[in-house]
Structures are given as C-alpha cells and as structure tokens.
C-alpha cells in the first residue's frame, strides 16, 4: 500500500514537472516566435522611407492610408507619397458601388471628392509630388472648382507628371496660371470632354518632354489649342494626339522624336488634313485611323520606325468618292515617310493599298531604305484577308537599297509573296 502511494506521488510530481516544462517550452517558443516577429517588423521598419513608399505605390491610395494603423513607423508614411493616383472607378468598386447605373456614379462623386480633398489636406505639405493623376467618371460631372484646387496643389508641389481626365459641368475648368509656366512639369496628359476645359492661347512649358492630348481641337475657340501650339514647348520629345481634330494643325517641334496620332471614330471626319509637320529629329511615327491622314508638308530626315494602320470602313458615312481617295492619300503619306528603315503595316492598310492595283503599279516604291517590313493584324482581330497580294509587296519593296537582306514578316496564317528584286524578280 505504501509503495502504491509513493508511486502515485511520484507520478503526480512528474506530471507537474512535465506541465511546468511544457509551459516553459511554450513560453520560450512564444518568446522566440514573438522575437522573430519583432525582428521581422524591425527589419521592415528600418528600411528607408523611399523603399517603403515604393511598396505603398503598388497599392491603392485608400489602402495606403489604411497602413497607418500597422505601427508608429507606418503611421505617417502615406502623407509623403510622391505618386498620387486618384481614380474614381477604382475607389467606387472598393466601396461596393455598382457603376453600371449612372445615378450611382452621381451619388458617389461627392464621396470621391471628399476623399481626395481630405487626403491632400492631411498630406505632408513639405513633400513634393512627382506624379499626380485625377480620373473621374464620364457619367457624373465633376465640380470644376474641385479640379482647379487639385491642379493648384499639384503645381505648388512641383509636379513632374500630370494626368487629368475629368468631365466637368459648367463652369468649365480654367487652368491656373502656374500650370503653363511650370518649370518642373515634364509630362502632361489631358482629356477634353465637351467644353470642360478652357485653354489659354499663350503659354510656355520650357521643360515639357511628353504631351498627350485626347479629344481636343486646334482652332481659335475657347476650348481648343491654337493651330500652332507646340512651338511653345522647346523641349518636347514625344507627342500623342488621340481622337483629336487635327485638321489645319501645324506641328513645329525641333526636338520631337516620337509622334503618335490616332483617330478611331469614323463618324467625325472624312479626312484629317494637317497643314505642316516640321520635326527634323523625329525617329518614330505612328498612325491609327479610320480616315485618311493628309499632310502636304512633312520632312523627317532621321525617321527610323513607322507604324501605320489605315482602317477602311466601307459603310456609310463613307461614299464612293472617299473610297477612291483613300488609296491615293495613303500612297502619298507613305511616300512622305520614305526615310523609314523599319515599317509595320496592318492588314487593313494593305487592304486599302490593294483597292487600286493600277495606281500601285504606276507609283514609285515609298521606302528606298527599308530593312524590315512587318505586316500585322489590327489589335489581334481575325482578318478576312488570307494572302497579301504580290502587287502590294512589290510596291512596298521594289526599290529598297537593302534588297539582299530585306526581311518581310507575315502574320500567322497569312500567305504572302516574296519581296521584289530588280535582278531576278524575288529574293
């Protein structure tokens, strides 16, 4: 009996010791885990502000603000973010708003403007802004005074890249005087809705490198740029005109290297008739359009690359007269791009050229210096063309100075002839 009691007592003591050891083990393990977490947290928190802000740049601004609750180290990081992207649609989706209904857009707009206003008011005002982007809804008008305050903030904080896409109801937005005298601004992107932005007729952006304009006109009215606006940008290197009415436009930009023009709505114009493009440094030219691009005065001595997509919509409002002019207009345009060495044409462009085989045979080849001709499908859509006519290939390649090494690339599934060679007909 005594031995039994002693044995039970020993087992009880051993059990207690095991529990104590387990608690000690768990405690040590917890401490080690906690230490590891603290070490991990310390390693992150010891990173420079620039790296942490780069991490925050990959998430939405609303989420960036929410990181302030993580720790004291993160509390104010968002207030000095250099890149600000205020996107109406993204913020609405995060808030569970169904943007398929126009009244939902209108009801959410005050919340969007409130968020932007509060964000800017609580931001560290000593921190400069590198990039500022404001994208509102085209289904709900934005208050022009709100947009002007955003512009003021960006300009006063040394913005380098400015992107404004905001539909404003009356009164229209008037750009602050500081915008068109900014010495920090390097990139400007603007979208014009119906009479939403008033454009001053005289301004200067001495350090602007990149300009992208969408749905603007170039004439003398209040909401348009002048017919020769780009001479005020002496450092301009890249110009993109998307869905702009460029008829009568004069482009004079001595340092311009890249020019992109796209006009993808067939119902506004029959032809885009520009007056002059003077860009002696231009190396890359790109055009996408349903209508013919016409410009009687063009000179690109340094041109290297051309991308051309002339899409023929053979339906109303096009007439037989327009169809007849399209091949001639295209041939004239390609001749003015004749210094290019690397040429990309869509199958739609080939289709326009093939409308008038006799004209092709009578016309000189446009590219005497061409090294590579690439034919491609427009936006990767299925094209009815099964083979590229040999007359078109001959027209494009027959006068190349590099006929022995000329490369012609065809899209998958499209048959094509060989480039023309004056010696034996083909290479």
From TrEMBL:
InterPro entries: F-box-like_dom_sf, F-box_AtFBL13-like, F-box_dom, FBL13/AtMIF1-like, LRR_dom_sf. SUPFAM superfamilies: F-box domain (SSF81383), RNI-like (SSF52047). It comes from Sesamum indicum. Pfam families: F-box. This is F-box/LRR-repeat protein At3g26922-like. PANTHER family: F-BOX/RNI SUPERFAMILY PROTEIN-RELATED, SUPERFAMILY PROTEIN, PUTATIVE-RELATED. Residues 41-91 form the F-box domain. It comes from the Eukaryota.
């Amino acid at each position: 009996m005594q031995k039994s009691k002693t044995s039970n007592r020993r087992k009880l003591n051993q059990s207690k010791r095991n529990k104590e050891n387990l608690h000690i083990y768990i405690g040590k393990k917890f401490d080690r885990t906690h230490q590891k977490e603290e070490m991990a947290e310390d390693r992150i928190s010891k990173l420079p502000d620039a790296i942490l802000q780069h991490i925050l740049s990959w998430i939405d601004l609303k989420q960036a603000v929410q990181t302030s609750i993580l720790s004291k180290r993160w509390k104010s990081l968002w207030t000095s973010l250099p890149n600000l992207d205020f996107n109406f649609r993204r913020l609405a989706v995060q808030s569970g708003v169904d943007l398929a209904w126009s009244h939902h857009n209108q009801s959410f707009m005050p919340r969007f403007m409130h968020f932007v206003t509060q964000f800017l008011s609580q931001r560290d005002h000593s921190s400069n802004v590198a990039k500022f982007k404001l994208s509102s809804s085209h289904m709900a008008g934005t208050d022009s005074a709100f947009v002007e305050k955003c512009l003021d903030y960006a300009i006063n904080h040394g913005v380098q890249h400015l992107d404004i896409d905001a539909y404003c109801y009356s009164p229209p937005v008037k750009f602050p005087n500081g915008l068109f005298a900014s010495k920090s601004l390097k990139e400007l992107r603007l979208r014009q809705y119906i009479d939403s932005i008033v454009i001053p007729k005289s301004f200067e952006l001495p350090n602007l490198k990149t300009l992208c304009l969408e749905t603007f006109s170039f004439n003398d009215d209040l909401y348009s740029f002048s017919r020769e606006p780009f001479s005020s940008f002496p450092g301009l290197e890249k110009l993109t005109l998307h869905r702009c009415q460029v008829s009568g436009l004069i482009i004079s930009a001595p340092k311009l290297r890249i020019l992109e023009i796209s006009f993808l709505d067939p119902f506004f114009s029959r032809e885009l008739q520009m007056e002059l493009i003077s860009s002696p440094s231009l190396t890359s030219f790109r055009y996408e359009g349903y209508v013919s691009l016409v410009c009687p005065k063009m000179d690109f001595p340094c041109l290297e690359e051309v991308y051309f997509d002339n899409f023929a919509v053979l339906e109303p409002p096009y007439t037989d007269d327009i169809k007849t002019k399209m091949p001639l207009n295209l041939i004239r345009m390609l001749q003015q791009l004749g210094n290019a060495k690397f040429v990309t044409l869509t199958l739609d462009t080939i289709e326009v050229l093939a409308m008038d085989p006799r004209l092709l045979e009578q016309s000189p080849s446009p590219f005497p210096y061409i090294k590579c001709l690439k034919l491609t499908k427009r936006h990767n859509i299925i094209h009815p063309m099964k083979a590229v006519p040999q007359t078109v290939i001959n027209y494009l390649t027959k006068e190349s100075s590099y006929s022995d090494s000329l490369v012609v690339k065809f899209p998958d599934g499209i048959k094509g002839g060989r480039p023309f060679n004056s010696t034996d007909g083909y290479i």
